[in-house]
Amino acid sequence: MSTAKGGNGADGTPPAGGKGGGKAGGAKGQRSRAASAGASGAAPRSRTGGSAVPVGGAAPLTAGRIGVYLLLLVAAVLVACAGTLVQAAWFPGGLVLALCGVGGLFYGGAAATGTSAGVLIPGAAWLMTVFLLLSDVRPEGDFLFGPGVGSYVFLLGGILIAVICATATQRRMMGVRAG
């Protein structure tokens, strides 16, 4: 092997600072694999078990991931409609049941996708659906949200649950340990 390609000399000793440079005498412009991994464009990986999701949360957009996002979007609309009806029907228990459904949707979306988009996409769909249902007043004066504190607790509680789930997902992706 020649020393120009980074190999050892004829006597088996590494070159002392030549053009090929090994560990002893590194050449300019060449880096080891470990040193150049960040510069090669590869995204750093999460510290939570070596998953394939990059730290920044920019997971690759595949057909399966798009399908999961669409399912979460449809589920968010259904949970918003069901929660709207249930929270007013059985006041204390229905409100708790509706908020548990919202929490399950958001936490499940975060767990299924491993990204904060798993919370943000159904959160936005849920919020838009609830606001559309809230603003929809029939000519007779009826609307789905009954007057009272339960409607506001459902609306603000759902927003708060979405923020908590999105924040917890961000902390988990950054590798922050609980406690």
Automatic annotation (TrEMBL):
The keyword RNA-binding does not apply. It holds the Pfam family DUF6113. It comes from the Bacteria. Residues 32-52 have a biased composition (Low complexity). Residues 1-28 have a biased composition (Gly residues). The chain crosses the membrane at residues 66-85, 91-110, 117-137, 149-169. Residues 1-52 are annotated as: Disordered. Keywords: Membrane, Transmembrane, Transmembrane helix. The keyword Membrane applies. This is Integral membrane protein.
